[in-house]
Amino acid sequence: MEKQYSLDELCQLLGLSKRTIRYYMQEGLVDRPMGQKRGAYYTGAHLKQLQQLQEWQSAGYSLDRIKELMGQSATPADTLLALQPKRGDVSVWSHIHLAPGVELHINPEKAGMTPEMTRKLYQQIGALVDQLDKDES
């Protein structure tokens, strides 16, 4: 038998409020619970939908864009790579200064990178640039 979750359990597992999960259901981003009223419960499928939604939000996607993504059958990684910008889409680029004349340009949305991943990449590339400077001296 598939594991069943209460709304409170989903909230604890995902760090979301009841209100947020209900809003996602209202917007059609997450399926409605099984059963009704006090007998309502959620399944692993609901958990996966919410996790996927959080993944895309952390990648910088708007809820409208997430609705489009959830309507596609590709895996999240395939979908992130295959998306082409549409007219009017706004993309945010990070420009990180590493050294004089050396700058790293990242579009975290397209790269599927969180801020933590971007910082780690900067630190690793920065260490390489420092090593090159050290080797030159």
Task: Describe it.
- The mean pLDDT is 81.
- The termini are far apart.
- The protein has two domains: 7-82, Multidrug-efflux Transporter Regulator, Chain: A, Domain 2; 94-136.
- It has helices spanning 7-14, 18-26, 44-58, 63-70, 76-82, 108-111, 115-136; strands spanning 94-99, 102-106.
- A two-stranded antiparallel sheet has the order 1-2.
- The chain is elongated.
- 53% of the residues lie in helices and 8% in strands.
- The longest helix has 22 residues, at 115-136.
- The protein is mainly alpha-helical and 137 residues long.
- The chain contains seven helices and two strands, in the order H-H-H-H-H-E-E-H-H.
Topology:
Elements: H1 7-14, H2 18-26, H3 44-58, H4 63-70, H5 76-82, E1 94-99, E2 102-106, H6 108-111, H7 115-136
Antiparallel strand pairs: 1-2
Unreliable residue runs: none
Calculate the terminal CA-CA distance, rounded to whole Å.
Answer: 66 Å
Shape: elongated
Run of helices and strands: HHHHHEEHH
The main β sheet shows up as: 2 strands, antiparallel
Total count of strands: 2
